[in-house]
Automatic annotation (TrEMBL):
Record domain Cathepsin propeptide inhibitor: where: 39-96
Record-given protein name: Uncharacterized protein
Keywords: Disulfide bond, Hydrolase, Protease, Signal, Thiol protease, Zymogen
A Pfam family reported for this protein in Swiss-Prot or TrEMBL: Peptidase_C1
Family: Belongs to the peptidase C1 family.
GO molecular function: cysteine-type endopeptidase activity
Signal peptide location: 1-27
Organism encoding this protein: Eucalyptus grandis (Flooded gum)
An annotated GO cellular component: lysosome
InterPro entries to which the protein is assigned, alphabetical: Papain-like_cys_pep_sf, Pept_asp_AS, Pept_cys_AS, Pept_his_AS, Peptidase_C1A, Peptidase_C1A_C, Peptidase_C1A_papain-like, Prot_inhib_I29
Residue intervals of the Peptidase C1A papain C-terminal domain: 127-344
SUPFAM superfamilies per UniProt: Cysteine proteinases (SSF54001)
Amino acid sequence: MAKQNQFSFLTSAALLVIIVSVSETLCRPLEEEHLLKQHEEWMAIHGRVYKDAVEKAKRYEIFKENVKRINAFNNGKDVGYKLAVNKFADLTNEEFRASYTGYKRRPTRVLSSGEKKPFKYANFTAIPAALDWRTKKAVTPVKDQGNCGSCWAFSAVAAMEGITMIKKGKLVPLSVQELVDCDDNDDGCMGGLMDSAFEFIVSNGGLTTEANYPYQGIDGTCNTAKTANQAASITGYQDVPANNEKALLQAVANQPVSVAIEGGGYNFQFYSSGVFTGSCGTDIDHAVTAVGYGKTSGSGGTKYWLMKNSWGTGWGEKGYMRIQKDVSSKAGLCGLATEASYPTA
Ligand SMILES: *[C@@H]1O[C@H](CO)[C@@H](O)[C@H](O)[C@H]1NC(C)=O
């Protein structure tokens, strides 16, 4: 009897080992098959076509790593926001950073017409508890910069569209391409900054409409026939006092504000929803537009800034990001309080 028991124990143990090893070898190809299928589906959704099998295999490996990393993040500790396998999923973070950002830090030189007047909203106190400039019809639909480092132009234009609506009562999508092609203060798809764009807009007598001079996403020659037909203008611009989220709040309470930010990080690349709480540094390389702020509901609500981005509506919350406000670092999360500015009109 004892012998028989021992025999059946050994048999079950052996069987278990066999089952485990079989399921292990079965699981791996299944996961691979699933990921291959997911990549094909993703390619179809995003209209991605690769030039050859070598490129496809290379992109698949990157896609796979991203999917695994995104899933691990989403299944991990809840930090208030989620990532998604979005249109950037076949790019490494280095490739993404090189192609989809484009903010150049402010040079130390003094810009010729850079306003040195005191911060005009310094004494403003009628600050609402929450604000969304979209509900006040001061924000145009989300645009997509594509594979061009023109974030600076989208940010400047969004802030200008906002102040134009506030001052003139009309919301008109303005031309980003005009800045990309004509603004010699900046480098088109190679990058730029909002302050020098505002400066160009003043000297240019304004900007024409998006409809008249539509976005192409490539550096082109300035079409002067089109720029003769300006639809809106600004009188200048001001910098929000640096490293001061309270000053930024005073500005955003009055108008949409251009914000420089470190947007090239991995979690920024794949952000999909919730209040972004990191991770990022303050090495500002991207530009967005602050179009509001608020606090999530519940007792331990998180305060956030509402940022309009220019990566299309498929990124983030329909093209927007909510990002943590009033963090301990004076620079703001991802450096958002370091180089903010707004046009005056
Ligand atoms: C804010 O108030 C102070 C004190 O009254 C005043 O000196 C300053 O000029 C005001 N700033 C602005 C921008 O109005």
